[in-house]
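Researcher: Can you fold this with zinc ion in place?
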Amino acid sequence: MKVIQHTAEELRTALVSNSKDLAKIYSKYTKEERCLLEEGFHSGQPGSLFQPITVHSDSDWISAHPEEPQDFESFYRDSYRRTPDASHNTIYIQTIGSFGEVGALTDQHVEWLRDYCQAFFYGLSVKLLPAVTVSETGCSFRVNSNSNNLQILTGDLLRFLGNKKPKDAFCIVGITMIDLYPEDSWNFVFGQASLSMGMGVFSFARYDDNFYTRGYAGRLKKRIQPRQGDYSVFEGYYTPPITSTLLLRSCKTMTHEIGHMFGIRHCQWLNCVMQGSNHLEESDRRPLDFCPICLRKIHVSVGFKIAERYKALLHWMEEDRCQTSGPETASHPATCFPKPTEAFHTSQQWLCRCLDRLETGNSRSHQTQEQSAQRHAGCTGVEGRSIVLSHIHQRSWRDKRRRESSCTMCSVALQAADKVTLTM
Ligand SMILES: [Zn+2]
Ligand SMILES: [Zn+2]
């Protein structure tokens, strides 16, 4: 395991910049906010809120995909980056296909995702578009010849999203529980985005704990060759159960991918939700939130009070876990689904500690996690679970049009057992 430890000076330059105009903007943060942001300079020290990046193997993103690091200044001066404005300030989420076997729970899961994104990109509006079936998108699909599960073609979905994008959209994000492929020669893809068009589509199918097991219920029982245009094969098709881990992974993926829409590139500074990820184990290792440098990038794009954003995220994790879905009618009794936030406990505690820093302005606070937790109700809990799927071997998608489309888990993966050769 290798630790990427930048010096405090390097991190200061990456965060504040040596340019006078950017340093002046930086000085407008409150003392407490600067105190929190500058915690990153002491990453890895006892009590620090931010940790250095650790590289566990050559298959980790940073080793496999050397990229130019993006500091705050290069982000700020990137003329291609997109920023929400008064008439383009809504993030739209379009669900494609079923999101669960129980209709109301499906709706609830998507609402949890929406609410999480709204807290994460605090100040922007996040709206759900009415769900569509796979057939409504008119997309091509296939049965994967190795894993024998259904897959839909990303390019067709992006075209569909492009036509659906509302006028006030900052971006539109399609999400689906069905596996994706970008072209015939590829085994699969987690997602694909067009950053210049502000749209992307992402699948959570492989976040199912059982996806890589023999018993995965999404494998079709018989080898069938579905006819293009006959979408009946999707009726009643398996979707993963909404577990706490699945909710955590889907929140993390959504916010990482939407982060790219703002022009934020993969983080190489500190442990951060914007770190690139080459495989599920690496993705599980990433934290849920931004490092100080990426936080400044999103802050300058959206504009919010840092403490208010953290409070909104904490509220999402703590709010009544039993929510009622839909209005109650005689034929449709309201159903109560507990929000499975067990896997968010580590993040919850971290948010409490950040809020403490913002309230006390004490960068080397001696408060323990327990003391911090007592100050913010609901902050006790267990460590988030990290699932290691060591048998997954993935290779990422190097997009030739780097500025157009790039991404985390917008990467192609191969199971070790697969015999497919990728064309890069
Ligand atoms: Zn970062
Ligand atoms: Zn990415």
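Model: Folded with zinc ion in place. The pocket of zinc ion (ligand 2) is lined by residues 256, 260, 266, 276, 407-408 (CB under 6 Å).
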